[in-house]
Amino acid sequence: MTSPTQRVCFQLRVKPELLDEYIRRHSPVWPEMLAEIAASGRRNYSLFLGEGGLLTGYYETDDDEAAQAYLAASEVATRWEAQMAPFFDGLDGRPDQAATPLTEVFNLHTQLVASGAAAATTESTH
């Protein structure tokens, strides 16, 4: 039996005076870093920037501990995270290792499945 997909969401705060440079560094991200993220098992990865530099990240993975360990051991990720660390307020350590995940309190698909409504919803959209 396969493990369910883990949805991981986290927040960090980008220093306001560095917002433009932070955005520039992500437009685009190094190709070798993109490859490492994918190789770690993270997928559907997005970053969203809000007011005051509030950065919210989201990704899915089958094993977040394994993904974290892979990136912690990656020379490419180590270089990338060393360059990204100065952008964040109140962060001790590498951004990819030190960000605290948020607690998921609602997921539409999970609740639809639990209520038995997922099949009916899927059928009504086709």
UniProtKB/TrEMBL annotation:
Q: Which domain of life is it from?
A: Bacteria
- Matches recorded under PANTHER family: L-RHAMNOSE MUTAROTASE (PTHR34389:SF2)
**Which named protein is this?**
L-rhamnose mutarotase
